[in-house]
Amino acid sequence: MNVLRITEQGRQPVSLSELPAVQATNLPALADQVIAFTQALSAALMQRSACREFDELVALGFWLRKASLTRFTGSLNGTFKPLGLVVHYTPANVDTMFVYSWVCALLMGNRNIVRLSSQQSALQQTLLHTLLDVLNAAEFSDIANANQFIQYDHNSESGDELSVLADARVLWGGDDSVLRIRELPCKPRCRDISFADRHSACVINGEAFSGATTEQQARLAEGIWRDMQPYLQQACSSPRALVWVGDNRAKVALLEAIGRCAHSANAPETLRNEQLVFSQWLVASGEATAYQFNGRVCSIELSSGAALVSPAHPGNWILPVHSISSLNDLAALTTPKLQTLSYWGFAKDDMVKFLAQPSITGIDRVVPVGEALQFSPDWDGYELLTQLARKVVVL
Questions:
Q1: Which domain holds residue 266?
Q2: Of the candidates 89, 258, 247, 281, which has an alpha carbon nearest to the alpha carbon of residue 168?
Q3: What is the mean pLDDT of the chain?
Q4: Are residues 168 and 222 in the same domain?
Q5: Which H or E element spans position 69?
Q6: Please, which residues bridge with residue 205 across strands?
Q7: Distance, CA of 244 to CA of 327 (rounded, Å)
Q8: How many CB atoms lie within 10 A of CB 80?
């Protein structure tokens, strides 16, 4: 069955068996050539004018710096070998996300086929053009031979054929999409890494905020907005709820400060309508008592007993707000779908003690406010570098 291979010349129909990655040789883990490639891509993403139009691409370039990658690879102990061919199924709503898991697989020496969403955007096109341009440099020919980017229709039989080739599958998407891919035939030892529906929240110490300086309060608002703004809050680690702990008197001041940060942000024409529909639905259902607009952000005061994050939350810079008395009360709001908890005004030890409660079944990451979208190979409870490799033990 044919798929569309994405190259600098466009999208070309090819059979899966014709993709060079299917027959290419694995690279050694942490090969010098791969490190050099990541540095060339990092420089291109941070320096090219087309890329600098997108904060997400600059952030990706910054993450790819050698100093950043060394922090993760330097902690690997033992002998690691690539798994073989890794097939990546990418999300449609976050254009850059596939690069992070792809780079982790690449660093460990794997060959890769990346199935991209057919939903094209200016960001995706700029990313692909830059990536392919760097990849096609003569010194990276071995990497280019072992890595291809493709598209095909969801209903195509190519999905079965591609899945059978995989030694590992990285699945980004909603629950239904992940389950559909996991039903495809695969090798008995194929390793699946699934990133399904998750959501995130931030928790603020109200008493600490009331005692903070104006500058500290402004930096907190900027940090929350930095975590919310990319991808219209669609990223799984972007906070889709704010939990205010304790003294409520300054809560409105924080929401207004977040609104000031977001005041001039570019937004789709439908943003306000979608915020209004969701807010009114929550109030009508009894899950919320009021809502207000601050700049581009819509904050919603939730009723006691409301879910931490409604499954229907559409992103779009909507910030539901829970008010609780103590940090321990947050445990009752957590679910297995809660991925990242960003925090402010609490000591790290407070968060460690909180997470020790056996009733907490979610939360894979706890980070300071402003760092929710900083990708690490430790993601969704997986250690990607070791999961995308075989550890060889010699006794």
A1: 199-368
A2: 89
A3: 94
A4: no
A5: helix 66-73
A6: 245
A7: 9
A8: 20
Residue entry with tokens 């879910």: 307
Task: Look at residue 94 and tell me if it is in a domain.
Answer: yes
Task: Give every CB contact of residue 227 below 8 A, 6+ residues apart in sequence.
Answer: 202, 237, 238, 239, 342, 369, 370, 371, 372, 373
* Mean pLDDT value across residues 274-301: 96
Q: What is the pLDDT of residue 156?
A: 64
357 and 238 within one domain: yes
Per residue in 292-309, pLDDT (tens digit) is 999 999 999 999 999 999
CA separation for the pair 70, 65 (Å, rounded)? 9
Residue 377 forms part of a structural domain: no
Q: Are 327 and 207 within one domain?
A: yes
Q: Report percent pLDDT > 90 for the chain.
A: 81
- Tell me, yes or no, whether 275 and 348 share the same domain: yes
| Same domain for 190 and 204 | no
pLDDT tops 70 at residue 126: yes
Closest CA to 125 of 40, 54, 230, 218: 54
Beta strands 389-392 and 191-195: pairing type? Answer: unpaired
189/330 same-domain check: no
Domain count within the chain: 2
314: domain CATH number?
3.40.309.10
pLDDT at residue 1, as a whole number? 62
Q: Cα separation of 21 and 18, whole Å?
A: 9
Q: Which residues pair with 320 in a beta bridge?
A: 300
- For 43, 260, 269, 317, 389, the CA distances from 272, given in Å and listed in that order, are 37, 16, 7, 10, 46
Task: Please check whether residue 281 lies inside any domain of the structure.
Answer: yes
Rounded to whole angstroms, how far apart are CA atoms 232 and 221? 17
Q: Give the whole-angstrom CA distance, residue 13 versus residue 8.
A: 14
Q: Read off the pLDDT of residues 198-251 as tens digits, 9 standing for 90 and up.
A: 999 999 999 999 999 999 999 999 999 999 999 899 999 999 999 999 989 899
Q: 208 and 353 share a domain?
A: yes
Task: Note whether residue 378 is domain-resident.
Answer: no
| Nearby residues of 226 by Cβ (< 8 Å), 6 or more positions away | 370, 373
CATH number of the domain encompassing residue 142: 3.40.605.10
* Whether 188 and 212 share a structural domain: no
